[in-house]
Amino acid sequence: MPELRKDPVVGRWVIISTDRARRPSDFAVEPRDPSGGPCVFCEGNEAMTPPEILAGRGRGGAANGPGWSFRVVANKFPALRIEGDLDPAGEGLFDRMNGVGAHEVVIETPRHDASLATLSADVVGDVLLAFRERVLDLRKDPRFQYILVFKNHGEAAGASLEHPHSQLIATPIIPIMVREELDGSARYWEMKERCVWCDIVRQERRAGARLVVESHGFVVLAPFAPRFPFETWILPARHRSAFEESGVDELRDLAAVLGDFLRRLGSVLRDPPFNFMLHTAPLREPRLDSFHWHLEVIPKVTQVAGFEWGSGFFINPVPPEDAAGALREGVPDAG
Fold first, then answer.
1. Could you name the CATH architecture of 3-329?
2. What is the pTM assigned to this prediction?
3. DSSP letters along 1-39, please?
4. What is the C-alpha to C-alpha distance for residues 125 and 253, in angstroms, rounded to an integer?
5. Residues with a known catalytic role
6. Tens digit of pLDDT for each residue in 171-214?
7. Is the Cβ–Cβ distance between 316 and 281 less than 8 Å?
């Protein structure tokens, strides 16, 4: 029988439609051909991107030339532009402000045919540290309230280029989905004087049915009320509200856990397109007792249709217990 489940953080209801239940193999996609390079992100084409803001150059080489392990550049077609003032204004009941922000691309590796699942933990750790360094730098700008780090992997997930890359966008307002999590977490804290995320981690570690893996101080789990098949959260086991407050060793441990999980996901769903989003505390409130930073990973294996858009309910044909079980069994090869 289908089941309605309520997310304990934001109060969102989802439908676990067991009448539509499908096996993990039903969601597997045909492997993509990653050999479409070279492209603007490939090594040797540095002149085709804006100048680098940050780069790993352990192999040597001058800025904006070959020899890098990762590069961070401004997005050539930014959603928001860093120049200018916000100038908020009202027009009757409508509010507006200038589209001021920052939009950057993190080119994760010179290798066109690689991915976060196939790169070594050291390389992935450098990428995560690049996220941290850019957040720490951009939060100095008083115009910005939030920075969302995200990745689109695969064309169906919104990636316009196959070369491994992720992005970050700094905004002058807190995104509504993050605000919902912050508000839900604050309500839970007011009622129980405990972090809801810490309670989720404790309960899922104890129960085990939705736990995918626990390693290196991080917990990978299928949430109780997932919107999408194989939606997965990665959280630090100990309370931390701001990602950028993480230490170097912590982020290198996260790199190992993230690579492990992505290889599991790839083995079960055959390298599906996916999105991941980093939800962390707002820039002006980096230390919150009620909030816990986390990565949300959402494979793109179903489509959002009319009922979801019209109602706000999400229909998920895979119970999270089944998804977690499949991912636990999808033991990856070493990265």
1. 2-Layer Sandwich (3.30)
2. 0.89
3. --EEEE-TTT--EEEE-GGG---GGGG--PPP-------
4. 8
5. 165
6. 998 999 999 999 999 999 999 999 999 999 999 999 999 999 99
7. no
